[in-house]
Design brief:
Structural class: alpha+beta
Shape: globular
Number of strands: 18
Number of domains: 2
CATH topology of the largest domain: Diaminopimelate Epimerase, Chain A, domain 1
Strand content: 35-45%
Oligomer: single chain
Order of helices and strands: EEHEEEHEEEHEEEHEEEHEEEE
Radius of gyration: 18 Å
Amino acid sequence: MMGGFAFTKMHGIGNDFVMVNALQNPLPEPSLPEIARKVCDRRFGIGADGLILATQGRDVPYAMRMFNPDGSESEMCGNGVRCFLAFLHQEGLTAESSVLVETGAGVLGLQSTDSGQVRVNMGKARLNPREIGMDWEGELFLDQPISDVRGTAVSMGNPHMVIFVPDVAGVDLEQVGPALENHPLFPARVNVHFVQVLSRTHLRQRTWERGAGVTLACGTGACACGVASFLNGHSERQVLIDLPGGRLEIDYSEDGIVWMTGPAETVFQGEWAGT
């Protein structure tokens, strides 16, 4: 039996999460994968793209842990980390507009903007295949063949494959997503994104997310798409990216750091009864 706990349901442009204050109400570590599978289930649970826990950081006050609907733990989640700052404020854990948060991809800086959005220093994009976690010997996986498409690999602390297409609406994600997610080049699997270039400053993206399937948005994926688009000569360093759930602003600075700005919204609060 798993006991109940309070939660807040939040979303960042449609990428939705069950947020839990595990600083004040810790959950049993061995049960976390099972809890994630149960609460994320959209028919028998709360329904979400992930379970996010606010926990104690080692070198900073707060840490974010993210579990996918299949129970696996992800290194990072861009839309989730924006929700994380709003959640800290709602829980009264901090009143600061800027905080540092420990994630599986490192310590990130989060800041509330005057417009009510959240701006995140996502750290440096990683382009070396070994840092991405690829089984590939080259120095850069840029516009390379993978299955029957060509892709660019980028890590934002978690692995991404970016594929440019004339029209993202024509991509059958349910068909091509699973095979690419589990491609042998990525022993730990990969997030897959299809991108349509609308202009030098405007992209459109659809995502098959590792461990979750089709999602309305992927923040780290949008960062990877912005980086890949610049590296392939399709866009400037600063772009707007339209995802099915909404829009993100991505800025790939000359020092290699990626900045992401977007909203974080509360849907409802409740109590998980446990099972």
